[in-house]
Amino acid sequence: QVDSANAGRVLASDAAVFLKKSGLTDLVLGKIWDLADTDGKGILNKQEFFVALRLVACAQNGLEVSLSSLNLPVPPPRFTDTGSPLLLSGTASSDLPWAVKLEDKAKYDAIFDSLNPVNGLLSGDKVKPVLLNSKLPVDILGRVWELSDIDRDGMLDRDEFAVAMFLVYCALEKEPVPMSLPAALVPPSKRIPVSVAGAMPLIPSSTSTKESHQSLPPGGILAAKAPLTQ
């Protein structure tokens, strides 16, 4: 698609136009380009272009943009242009490591518990002050809520709250909040095992209940040690 002349290479100008459709910031794209264009010629061959695409996927899934991330399992990169080849991922989404790290989860759990959840759930009214406290634009916070309320019940459980906090921190780091929840961000408790690799519905069916997180160890043990940072 980018190498329309079949020359076996793409120029910086053409690649930049295409990579911009990933929704990543220019700063991140610049870093991706520097890593992919190894000899600094301003041209990418096929292999280098693949590296760039892989790094875009890493960035979109909250992973570090570095060559060490290249071997991590990530879904394919997403581009807003409708003509882009969105291939199904080769890894089943249920095998993806959750993008929320353990130490961060402990922090988010501590904030969750401080908001007095009822039956393990927080209403929108209780979450709203925490979101507004980030000083992010209201439209961004609206999208954070949409993405984190995975089962659309107007409440956040412990895992959904962790997703919301993760997205808020990403936005504060000037990372774009995705339009749809990346597979790596869907909490393991909300993932539906699928037989077709990668074809994973993001909204669980109504049979999936909030009970699923009960099987996890209580976050309180970890949370007690975590500082209460909002």
From TrEMBL:
The keyword Transcription regulation does not apply. Keywords: Calcium, Metal-binding. GO terms for molecular function: cadherin binding; calcium ion binding. It holds the Pfam family EH. Residues 1-80, 104-192 form the EH domain. The keyword Zinc-finger does not apply. GO terms for cellular component: clathrin coat of coated pit. It comes from the Eukaryota. This is EPS15 factor. The gene is Eps15.
